Amino acid sequence: MPLEQPYPIVTAAVKAYQRYLKLEKNYSRHTIDAYSNDLRHLLRFFQDEGKSPLAATLADLERFAVKLHTLGIGPSSQARIISGVRSFYRYLVLDGHIADDPTELLETPRLGERLPEVLSTEEVDRLEAAIDLSKAEGQRNRAIIEVLFSCGLRVSELVNLRLSDLYREERFVRILGKGSKERLVPISDRALHEIALWETDRCHLDIKPGEEDYVFLNRRGARLTRTMILIIVKRLAAEAGITKTISPHTLRHSFATALLQGGADLRAIQAMLGHEDIGTTEIYTHVDATALRDEILYHHPRNIRHRRATEE
């Protein structure tokens, strides 16, 4: 369904919103398309109602949320669509198309909370210990694991990491994250050491033109892909005997959780991860609380007695 509406002013507002996502928010074409697809549900609903979405009330949007449910759209997809609708109305207020945001009191479908899988420092050590350093790619893979865990990078940030982004003396790495937002992330001495060892092997590669500045390359001298990093991490987990379902993102979660357990401020973790919303970072407080609960339950005298009784 095209985004054009019977109300020309709505069509103009939608197009202005899409320009805002591209120019002001610096979103990718893929992300803008996703927001536009979410908006189609809203526009179709108001078209069927014979009403302009610019005149929407909270009651209208509550009926819209019910409509999503009756269409058989799952809770997670409903939540995503409503999130896109919130973004649209926030923009309309920001740009003066409407005076008040009708989504302020709109509830999002409640989702079952799924906490991210994390690895302990000991399990990360096991991952690295499983690497065969006699192989050509061994030191590279060790450096990859250490950088993911030490810096908490997204896999897309890792594959795009450049040698010119490393500030070795200052022990910072410059990261270009989501929305082309730049941030400086501290990098540990150990991670820098592993990269330096990898560079000794890297200099023997026949590096493809244009790829010279990328840190992590494959045996053909080209930049690694996200899929290749996923394969490396999963293969190492299997070899290390780690049965958790993990991915490169697990190391990012593990980085954040380790910092929180070590006493780091949540705002500092937010800045290092490049989260725009502190609410995204707060998931790690739940992970930390879950670990604390398990620790307490395991060591509680009642549970110790019960375990001993069942083992006898």
Molecular structure report:
The chain has a three-stranded antiparallel sheet with strand order 1-2-3. It is mostly helical. It starts with 7 loop residues before the first helix and ends with a helix. A hairpin with a 5-residue loop joins β2 (172-176) and β3 (182-186). The protein is elongated, with a radius of gyration of 24 Å. α6 (138-151) runs antiparallel to α8 (189-202) and α6 (138-151) crosses α10. The longest helix has 21 residues, at 29-49. 28% of the residues are buried. The chain has helices at residues 8-24, 29-49, 58-70, 75-94, 121-129, 138-151, 155-159, 189-202, 226-239, 248-261, 266-273, 278-281, 283-299, 301-311; strands spanning 166-167, 172-176, 182-186. 58% of the residues lie in helices and 4% in strands.
Keywords:
single chain; 312 residues; mainly alpha; 14 helices; 3 strands; 4% strand; elongated
**Tally of contiguous helical segments:** 14
The largest β sheet comes out as:
3 strands, antiparallel
- The N- to C-terminal Cα distance equals 67 Å
Radius of gyration computed on alpha carbons: 24 Å
If strands are numbered along the chain, what order do they take across the biggest sheet?
1-2-3
Number of strands: 3
Give the averaged pLDDT, no decimals. Answer: 85
Helix content: 55-70%
Shape: elongated
Element-by-element helix/strand order? HHHHHHHEEEHHHHHHH
The percentage of residues in β strands lies in under 5%
- Uncertain segments are none
Which oligomeric state applies? single chain
